[in-house]
Each structure stands twice: as C-alpha cells, then as structure tokens.
C-alpha cells in the first residue's frame, strides 16, 4: 500500500493531531464500541468493497476494517498520526493520503466514505463542513454510503465553565485536557497539556459541533439525504441521553 501527499495548509491543520500522535492510542484504546463501529462499516462497504476514511489518525478503525477484507484509504492532515498508523500496520494494508479535507479530489470513488469520531467537526465553520460533505459525495460510488459519527451537543451547549479531564499515561506522565464552549459559534476549544517530567507541552485545537437537524439540512445543501440515524454503533434509537449519533447519508439522486 502507499502514501500520497496532497499539497494544502497541512502545517496548521495537522499541528493538533501531531501533538497527540504518540499517546493517541493510549487515550483512545480499542473498545467494544470500536469493534461495533468496524462491524457496521464493513457491512456497509460490502464484501470486497472499498472505503475512504476521513481523519484516519493512527488507524484504529482503518486497520481492523482492512483486516475484514475492505480496501481502505485513509486521509489525515497529521503526518505524525500517519507515521503511527504505518507502525501499527506493518503489512501496509491501508493506503494513506496526507491532506486536509477541503477541496480534496482523489479521482476515485468508494463504496463507503466514513468520518467517525467527530471528523466532520474538525471543519471550523458551517460552510466548511458543507464543503467537506460535498467532498465526501464527490468520492462516493453509485449506491454507496457516507457514515458520520458526531457527538450529541446537548450536554455541552449550555456549559459555561471550563471542563478539565486528566488522563494518566503511565509512570510520571499525564495529559490534562481542558475544554471550553463558545455557543455562539458552536465551538469547543481544546487545550491539552502534556506533563511527563520535562517541560510541559501545550497544544490547542477546536471543533465545531453539529446538531442532528442541522446536519440534515447541511447534507441536503451538499446533494445528500439521510437514510438512517442511530444513537450509537449498536444501531439503537437516538435519545436525549445518547452521547453521540451516527448518520448514514446517500446521494440525493440515488
């Protein structure tokens, strides 16, 4: 398998991912939810099908998806994340593209296009998120599916205080994650501080969260329509208590 680089403003967009690459798999280990996610994606891609993952990161979804026989290509703006992916994938089962999402055109079509773990939220404005949806549609094969996993913003939207979560990373090492909400722009600012005995390392990032009804309209503006929505990878109903939601989109013309 191969890695391709698409020229864009990678230095800025990849900086946050670069800062977390070495500890990402400790922060977000493979869980039963990840295994459910991979199972759903493999089913939607179809036997021997192809998949394009936006925000592939260290490959925690892409590598097990490829192990199920899906031909996987992953996009990420962080070169360090992709470096960890290559270490995690010694058999080179996943093709990678070093690029940002906006304006991307690989001149290929895929049975499945996936943006899990809030990949869409990495675009900082509504217009840019709609553009990402258009890019996803551009890469969708006839009859294909787009699958998005997004956190449900209800719990966060009214929060005014900074929230701090501490992640132990082993002897003498800890990551302190602080988040602050700016509801006017539907933005969640993130500040991560790595403390491991040396000089603390700080990295900042942000996400723009999306309401389910808003995503429906954004999809229509991008030429897509909602086919299914669940409150988790178990395909349960979306409720007020769901921490995240999964949306399956298809081309409006299909």
Automatic annotation (TrEMBL):
Keywords associated with the record: Methyltransferase, Transferase
Pfam families: Methyltransf_25
Gene Ontology MF terms in the entry: methyltransferase activity
GO BP, sorted A to Z: methylation
Family annotation (SUPFAM superfamilies): S-adenosyl-L-methionine-dependent methyltransferases
Methyltransferase domain boundaries: 52-144
Highest taxon in the source lineage: Bacteria
CDD domains: AdoMet_MTases
Keyword Methyltransferase attached: yes
Matching PANTHER family: METHYLTRANSFERASE (PTHR42912), METHYLTRANSFERASE DOMAIN-CONTAINING PROTEIN (PTHR42912:SF80)
Protein name as annotated: Class I SAM-dependent methyltransferase
Lineage of the organism: Bacteria, Bacillati, Actinomycetota, Actinomycetes, Pseudonocardiales
């Amino acid at each position: 398998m191969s890695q391709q680089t698409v020229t864009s403003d990678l230095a800025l967009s990849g900086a946050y991912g670069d800062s977390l690459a070495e500890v990402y798999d400790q922060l977000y280990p493979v869980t039963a939810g990840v295994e459910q996610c991979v199972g759903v994606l493999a089913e939607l891609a179809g036997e021997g099908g192809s998949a394009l993952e936006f925000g592939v990161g260290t490959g925690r979804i892409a590598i097990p998806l490829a192990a199920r026989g899906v031909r996987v290509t992953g996009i990420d703006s962080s070169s360090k994340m992709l470096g960890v992916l290559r270490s995690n994938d010694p058999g080179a089962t996943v093709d990678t593209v070093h690029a940002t999402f906006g304006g991307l055109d690989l001149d290929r079509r895929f049975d499945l296009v996936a943006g899990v773990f809030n990949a869409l939220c990495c675009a900082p404005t509504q217009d840019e998120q709609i553009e990402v949806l258009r890019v996803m549609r551009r890469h969708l094969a006839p009859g294909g599916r787009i699958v998005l996993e997004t956190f449900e913003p209800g719990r966060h939207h009214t929060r005014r205080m900074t929230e701090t979560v501490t992640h132990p990373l082993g002897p003498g090492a800890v990551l302190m994650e602080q988040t602050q909400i700016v509801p006017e722009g539907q933005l969640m600012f993130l500040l991560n501080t790595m403390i491991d005995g040396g000089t603390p390392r700080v990295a900042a990032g942000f996400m723009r969260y999306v309401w389910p009804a808003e995503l429906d309209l954004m999809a229509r503006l991008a030429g897509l329509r909602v086919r299914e929505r669940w409150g988790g990878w178990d395909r349960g109903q979306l409720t007020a208590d769901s921490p995240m939601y999964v949306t399956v989109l298809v081309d409006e013309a299909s």
